[in-house]
Amino acid sequence: MATEFISKTKRTHSCGALRASDIGKEVVLFGWVQNRRDHGGLIFIDLRDRDGLTQIVFGPELAAEAHTLAERFRSEWVIGIRGTVRSRGMQWSKKENKEVPATNPNLATGEIEVVVLEATVFNKAQTPPFEISEHTSANEEIRLAHRYLDLRRPTLQRTIMTRSKLNAATRQYFVDNGFLELETPFMGRYTPGGARNFLVPSRLNPGNFYALAESPQLYKQLFMVAGFDKYFQIVKCFRDEDLRLDRQPEFTQIDVEMSFVAQDDIFAVIEGLLKKLWKEVHGIDLPTPFRRMDFDESMARYGNDKPDLRFALEHTQLNDVIAKFGSDGGVGPMWDSVQQKGLVKALVVPAKHALSRSEIDKLEEYVKGMGAGGLARAKLADNGDWTQAPLFKNAKPELKAAILEATGAKNGDLLLFQFGKPSQVHTIMANLRVHLAKKLGLIPEFGTKDGQWNFLWVVNPPLFEYDEDAKTWAAAHHAFTRPMDECLKYLEPESFDPAKVYCYRYDVVLNGFEIGGGSIRLHDPEVQSKVFKAMGISDEDARSKFGFLLDALKYGAPPHGGIALGMDRLAFLITQTESLRDVIPFPKTQKGTDLMTGAPGEVDEKQLRDLYVKSVPPAK
RNA sequence: GGGGGGUUAGUUCAGCUGGUUAGAACGCUGGCCUGUCACGCCAGAGGUCACGGGUUCAAGUCCCGUACCCCUCGCCA
Predict the structure, then answer these.
(1) What is the pLDDT of residue A474?
(2) Which residue is nearest to nucleotide B3 (CA to C1')?
């Protein structure tokens, strides 16, 4: 009967389509039973598909057979109905003390209902482990285990459909602008450096492994060498690193590379794309060009290279102030830190956000969790006294005055300090800043208030960073980034100073999340060789690691550069959801497992033998 | 690898200072109900208190360990 129904009776509308203008039409709807309200006589059912909800009504005298069937309907049964669209009846309003139209303003289809003439059941459903609705409160673990049910919920359906829209708009944008969508291998050769790779054993080549691409970086540069001067791809990438709220082991990038361009050209292309995406999804016009900030400035003021500019709570670096007074300042630990090439930073919490002592103690616990020794503080009393500030007990008044001047702190404000190893001080203060902003209600715990889209380009970072362990200079990002022309002299032997080499690298940041990053590449083999030399990598080393790319650059490589945007992060931010997992249909847990399929799982001994692989579980 | 939070009914949670038969809401099952819309009313079923040890006359509750989930530092060129 069900199969007969579906072959004879074709769907005429989705469950979100019908309006008052359709009244009188005979329609066929298919969908899931969201909800049954059985009045003994009349039965109301909200029928759901991905487009919305439509109220359908079964009356005993209208279609007795369908009504009898509907008495047995339960949540999530899949049914089909044929019926007539009609206006909803009148309803007695106690509030207004008169008859009012029984419309439901919460539904797009709330002006109408479909009175059923014929109904069929395609499938019954077990009672689901959680309610399939907008307002489910089931936790993520149970939802991930039944992801196919979670994906049936309107919220998730909307974000997944938005993602589809982002994909379509992205392709449209690049194609319209003359880009070619080209594909690159997932399985490639392992290249050292960067993220840990997932490895795939080669059956045909015993003992050898493919690496899953952590990005198409090298291939897209080779496309430039080959002359495909505008490339894009929406592509999966794989990185075997620890997961976070905004990191999954497999994720999607919008990968872009262009020839004959300078940094500004790439910015314009990406700003155009983001403008289009925000217009498409939110109907708003993002102001462009985006703000730009030097990497060094971002580190100094915010402690990282992805500052959230929706609020202030900026850092102040106090090294100069502390150094000016030296050991006379009376704050020994800070002076020691400055002498040991450490960093001293302060953050002012304005008086209006008054924090209790126990709240500040909680902040101290929070920063200790990141390895801080403590959280030095000074509460400025209304008379200007420094209270709760043991560190400053012997501090010179002039030093205190200088700190106030540098930070702009006023009576009633709270000063928080970190000092020590620069990278650690930056990280702790950067996280403290965001943590405080959430706690003080300056930004929401997650998501984005409408209109608060703070885009930013972070530009001009140093090319190298010093590797304390290896005692060498290493590429801060990758070795194929072009140094700024005015910095090239610091690669020459007579004025060698890697710390002063800045480069054409850029990150695009939105509300504290890095949504993309790229660089202008090194296409000149001579400069490339100097860069390797600065890192202590010989030509032979470089050749053995990146030989094919270095070769390619010698055969007439055009100047080129590119960027990759994190599609998942973009989707997560644009949909204002809580986590990347909300915009990935089948995401993995923090340990990289799939709670639905049970991946990763064990395999047969024979499968391992075929691959010449032996499994050695960790000793307990 | 480190720090923090969590795990009690199908779901979300409460369960105090260790003390009789572990509760609530929603959901589920049955009944009643012709204008509801997260319908309403009545009744009922539903528990390996994550797992393993330990302390105790007595453990959901205290201690130790393990597993899993979440946030985070490290890591992510």
Answers:
(1) 85
(2) A369
Q: Count Cβ neighbours within 10 Å for each residue of A375-387 and write b for 16 or more, e otherwise.
A: bbbbbbeeeeebe
Q: Which residues of chain A have pLDDT under 50?
A: none
From CA A100, how far away is CA A3, in angstroms rounded? Answer: 41
Place of tokens 């090239």: A488
Q: For A307-328, b where at least 16 C-beta lie within 10 A, e where not — what string?
A: bbbbbebbbbbbbebbeebeee
Instruction: Compute the distance between CA of residue A502 and CA of residue A279 in angstroms, rounded to an integer.
Output: 35
Q: What is the pLDDT of residues A78-133, one digit of tens each?
A: 999 999 999 997 777 766 677 778 899 999 999 999 999 999 999 999 999 999 99
For tokens 């002076």, name the residue. Answer: A335
CA atoms of A331 and A320, how far apart (whole Å): 14
Read off φ and ψ for residue A384, nearest 5 degrees.
95, -5
CA atoms within 13 A on the CB side of A140: 13
Q: Which bases along strand B come within 7 Å of a protein CB atom?
A: 1-4, 10-13, 26-29, 32-40, 68-77
Å from the A375 CA to the B36 C1': 58
Distances (CA, A) of A191 to A187, A217, A287: 12, 11, 40
Instruction: Select from A209, A212, A181, A207 the least CA-distant residue to A196.
Output: A212
Q: How far is the CA of A619 from the C1' of B54 (A)?
A: 26
Distance A597 CA to B53 C1' (A): 32
Closest nucleotide over all strands to A87 (CA to C1'): B35
Question: Per the structure block, which two tokens stand in for A51?
Answer: 């487009």
Question: What ranges make up the beta strands (E) of A350-495?
Answer: 376-380, 386-387, 414-420, 455-459, 464-467, 472-475
How high is the pLDDT of residue A95? 67
- Characterize the bridge pairing of strands A250-259 and A230-238: antiparallel
By C1' distance from the Cα of A218, the closest nucleotide is B77
Output phi, psi for A155, to 5 deg.
-60, -50
DSSP readout, A558-574?
A: PPEEEEEEEHHHHHHHH
3-class secondary structure, A289: coil
What does the pLDDT read at residue A469?
Answer: 74
Please give the torsion angle defined by the CA atoms of residues A580, A582, A587 and A592, in that order, rounded to the nearest 10 degrees.
50
A598-CA/B11-C1' distance, Å: 22
ipTM entry: 0.93
Q: In the structure, how far is the CA atom of residue A89 from the C1' atom of nucleotide B45, in angstroms?
A: 38
Calpha distance A557→A225 (Å, rounded) = 5
d(CA A35, C1' B29) / Å? 17
Q: How many CA atoms lie within 13 A of A584 on its CB side?
A: 23
Could you give the CA distance from residue A520 to residue A505 in angstroms, rounded to a whole number?
7
- Beta-sheet strands, E only, within A110-159: 112-123
Of A360, A484, A331, A342, residue with least CA distance to A422 = A342
